[in-house]
Write a structure and sequence with these properties.
This is Acetyl-CoA acetyltransferase. 36% of the residues lie in helices and 18% in strands. By secondary structure, it is of the alpha/beta class. Strands 1, 2, 3, 4, 5, 6, 7, 8, 9 and 10 form a 10-stranded mixed β-sheet that branches. β9 and β10 form a beta hairpin. It is globular.
Length: 384
């Protein structure tokens, strides 16, 4: 089978909600990383076969196929198409999968895969509110098939995060300690310049991630739950909303030779699995098991893991089930500290994973994340 290679991976700094990137149009934020990738790698822009971007809640400034819009906003040739993917929080990880699959099929050679999300201007609830304006209550309530199968069971990330915490024995105090460590790792990485190679500063706006913050367990303990029904789930143990974009250059062996490119990693494995949508956030556990079995590997083969910190309980449950060491998981902090820009998170995590493998001299890295509908992508890359 043909191989898919990662030649480059870059991301914007992560802007906190209502922060330095809050007024930046989604197309321009996406264009920011597109320009950087194209200019750095010497492949003629007209030779790109496709642009595949992840995005969630594609309304307002993110509507109208943001992948295509961002490419054009970057001043790139009109002949190159773009398509936008929505697999909820895993959208840009799925964009990477689709790009790799196109290359591995032999039908395309040069693809830009990434994602963008502007949560300051388009909050996570925007699509649901738009639906309510059209007379719909939730995406599920009017479906006879859904109601017959699941009834009125809540499809709610906070409900799921609390349920997972209770099932796996993650107390509020333990989750707050986990969250504090995420911030500590992120702040250390920023101070030590760990992210400097992967972040493309937005000139005049933001040079580096602004979401991580100093805190204490005492401060976290004073926060009210997001809902009284979920007493352990506070803002402190949840990922922060933010604005960001990220992109990777995925190419074939033919393209490596044609453009004299140096591959930095190979897509070793890609898969996606699903779990109960009411549990909502548990799929990374069976998805990881499935991926390792398909790849003929064990977690002993994996040098580093990036798993999205949608909530502390999600990662803590994954760690407990797999037995993988926290010391090699989200080593530079996770989404609790660095933000979860929804449709951009998959490409953002992959960018960080690649750079950290290079920094440490590791060989294999695994990435996974929980996604709406009880889904999870898993990607294993091999550093070259």
């Amino acid at each position: 089978m043909a191989q898919a290679y990662i030649v480059d991976a870059l991301r914007s700094p992560t802007g906190k909600r209502r922060g330095a990137l809050a007024t930046m149009h989604g197309a321009d934020l996406g264009a920011h990383v597109i320009k950087a990738i194209v200019e750095r790698n010497g492949v003629p822009a007209e030779d790109y076969d496709d642009v595949i971007f992840g995005c969630v809640d594609t309304i307002g400034a993110l509507a109208g196929d943001i992948a295509r819009t961002a490419w054009l906003a970057a001043g790139m040739p009109m002949c190159v198409p773009g398509t936008t993917v929505d697999r909820q929080c895993g959208s840009s990880q799925q964009a990477i999968h689709f790009a790799a699959q196109a290359v591995m099929s032999g039908t395309q050679d040069v693809i830009l895969a990434g994602g963008v999300q502007t949560m300051s201007s388009i909050p996570i609830s925007s699509a649901m509110l738009a639906g309510q304006a059209l007379g719909f209550t939730t995406p599920f309530a009017e479906s006879e098939g859904w109601q017959k199968r699941f009834g009125d069971a809540p499809v709610n990330q906070f409900y799921a995060a609390q349920r997972i915490a209770d099932h796996w024995g993650a107390t509020r105090e333990a989750m707050e300690a986990f969250a504090l460590e995420s911030h500590r790792r992120a702040l250390t990485a920023i101070r030590e310049g760990v992210f400097d190679r992967e972040v493309v500063p937005v000139e005049g706006r933001l040079a580096m991630d602004e979401t991580a913050r100093e805190s204490t367990l005492e401060k976290m303990a004073t926060l009210e739950p997001v809902d009284p029904a979920y007493p352990s789930i506070t803002a402190a143990v949840s990922s922060s909303t933010c604005d960001a974009s990220a992109a990777l250059l995925i190419v074939s062996e033919t393209a490596l030779k044609r453009y004299n490119l140096t591959p930095r990693a190979r897509i070793h494995h890609l898969s996606v699995r699903a779990d109960d949508p009411i549990w909502h956030l548990t799929a990374p556990i069976p998805a990881t098991q499935h991926a390792l079995k398909r790849a003929g590997m064990s977690l002993d083969d994996i040098d580093l893991v990036e798993i999205n910190e949608a909530f502390a309980s999600v990662v803590m449950a994954w760690l407990k089930e797999t037995g993988y060491p926290h010391e090699r998981t989200n080593v530079n902090g996770g989404a609790i500290a660095l933000g979860h820009p929804l449709g951009a998170s998959g490409a953002k995590l992959m960018t960080t994973l690649l750079h950290e493998l290079e920094r440490r001299g590791g060989r294999y890295g695994l990435q996974t994340m929980c996604e709406g509908g009880g889904q999870a992508n898993v990607t294993i890359i091999e550093r070259l």
